[in-house]
Design a protein that fits this description.
With 234 residues, the protein is an alpha+beta fold. Among the domains are: 68 residues, Winged helix-like DNA-binding domain superfamily/Winged helix DNA-binding domain (Arc Repressor Mutant, subunit A, Orthogonal Bundle); 89 residues, Arc Repressor Mutant, subunit A. The protein is 38% helix and 11% strand. The protein is built from ten helices and five strands, in the order H-H-H-H-E-E-H-H-E-H-H-E-E-H-H. A three-stranded antiparallel beta sheet has the order 3-5-4. Strands 1-2 form a two-stranded antiparallel sheet. Helix 2 packs across helix 3, helix 2 packs across helix 4 and helix 6 packs across helix 8. The longest helix has 18 residues. It is elongated, with a radius of gyration of 37 Å.
Length: 234
């Protein structure tokens, strides 16, 4: 029987030259392919999970984290080094932006420039509550004699022990040693006077303890009279 005499005559159906690609569960789609384009996008952060800061905002947020974590002032240069800011000037600008945010939001804390650096501190109006949180042994106070000696050194530094005693009228060696132990004063050199007595000056801890950016922030109204001026009334 010829092929034409077969039932349903005509040539047999030919297979298509191109077949649909078979899916392979273990095959990874190449980038740009239809399968890759159909891949689901990365899921958004879950509820309660903080989104990472944008690249442009990251240095400012890093500075905020650094200030929050430190119990000491951090210089602008150090902030720039750690946060990736361009330089100390850029770090200062970002600090000002943070401070403006805190003020606008009415936060209970702010950034203060102290002892050549920046520190995150609670605002003064909240001091009564903050002090209640501190234990008594943490609240170290200075005697009136120590405060007087500290003020003399702060305004007249560098100064010798004899000069301090001349102004106070009493021996002050033990007070000076105590203030050095508390790291509020330090020996800054030796005088050229007979015997080369030690010269005392204030420390960075002194600025931090009294909330001063530098010695130029000392109150100008409090002036100390020299021993010669004090004797003019005698």
């Amino acid at each position: 029987m010829s092929e034409q005499d077969r039932p349903g005559g005509g040539p047999p159906a030919q297979e298509s030259e191109q077949q649909a690609p078979q899916s392979n569960p273990g095959q990874v789609a190449a980038p740009g392919s239809a399968q890759a384009e159909a891949s689901p996008a990365p899921s958004a952060p879950q509820h309660g999970e903080a989104e990472p800061p944008a690249a442009s905002d990251r240095p400012k947020r890093v500075i905020e984290a650094l200030l929050f974590s430190s119990d000491r002032p951090i210089s602008a240069g150090r902030l720039a080094e750690l946060s990736g800011a361009a330089d100390g000037r850029e770090a200062r600008r970002l600090v000002r932006e943070l401070q403006a945010e805190y003020v606008a939001e009415g936060r209970a804390f702010g950034i203060e420039e102290i002892a050549g650096g920046f520190q995150l501190l609670s605002r003064s109006e909240f001091a009564p509550w903050v002090l209640q949180l501190q234990s008594r042994h943490q609240q170290e106070t200075l005697s009136s004699a120590a405060l007087e000696t500290l003020a003399i050194v702060a305004y007249r530094q560098p100064i010798t022990r004899a000069q301090v005693e001349d102004i106070r009228g009493v021996q002050s060696g033990h007070i000076l040693r105590s203030l050095v132990e508390k790291r509020l004063l330090k020996v800054v050199g030796k005088s050229q006077e007979l015997g080369r007595p030690l010269l005392y000056g204030t420390t960075r801890n002194f600025l931090q303890a009294f909330g001063l950016r530098s010695l130029s922030d000392l109150p100008r109204t409090a002036r100390l009279a020299s021993s010669q001026e004090a004797r003019q009334g005698d």
